[in-house]
């Protein structure tokens, strides 16, 4: 199996741990996994490196703050859209899996069902969004759905 470069953009530690366990299990710890936890950090990661896959949370803080949560900036309900916008503006293309706790995504003033979001966002931002995972706290469905999407990717 060829080592895949994967960017995980997730700010909640419990979700990150669960997603990393699923990714490591699927790739048998042979993925080159980079983790960032803010819009700003994701922007710099995609600007400096190319990734085979981006696993992208849609609700992210603007900045990373290691010590003081107040320094993180505002949580953006659609911070993931900012990352998609950054990819498009730099003419970068990647395969993407969306992770969110919300069944709908607001885009352009319209609420999109998560099932429709991949197609709409793929077209708008010229990315290959493989699919999405509706995250539920510590639910086996997270692992099952992510694994299905990773199979499509690999």
From TrEMBL:
Alphabetized UniProt keyword annotations: Phosphoprotein
Residues with 4-aspartylphosphate modification: 57
InterPro entries for the chain: CheY-like_superfamily, Sig_transdc_resp-reg_receiver
Top-level taxon of the source organism: Bacteria
GO process terms (BP): phosphorelay signal transduction system
Residues of the Response regulatory domain: 5-138
Pfam families: Response_reg (PF00072)
UniProt name for this protein: Response regulatory domain-containing protein
């Amino acid at each position: 199996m060829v080592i895949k470069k994967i960017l995980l953009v997730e700010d909640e530690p419990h979700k990150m741990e669960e997603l990393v366990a699923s990714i490591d299990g699927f790739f048998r710890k042979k993925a080159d996994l980079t983790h960032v936890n803010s819009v700003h950090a994701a922007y710099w990661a995609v600007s400096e490196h190319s990734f085979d896959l981006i696993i992208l949370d849609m609700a992210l803080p603007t900045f990373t703050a290691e010590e003081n949560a107040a320094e993180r900036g505002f949580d953006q309900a659609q911070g993931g859209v900012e990352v998609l916008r950054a990819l498009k503006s730099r003419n970068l293309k990647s395969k993407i899996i969306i992770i969110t706790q919300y069944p709908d995504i607001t885009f352009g003033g319209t609420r999109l069902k998560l099932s429709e979001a991949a197609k709409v966002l793929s077209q708008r931002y010229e990315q290959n969004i493989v699919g999405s995972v509706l995250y539920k706290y510590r639910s086996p469905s997270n692992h099952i759905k992510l694994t299905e999407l990773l199979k499509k990717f690999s």
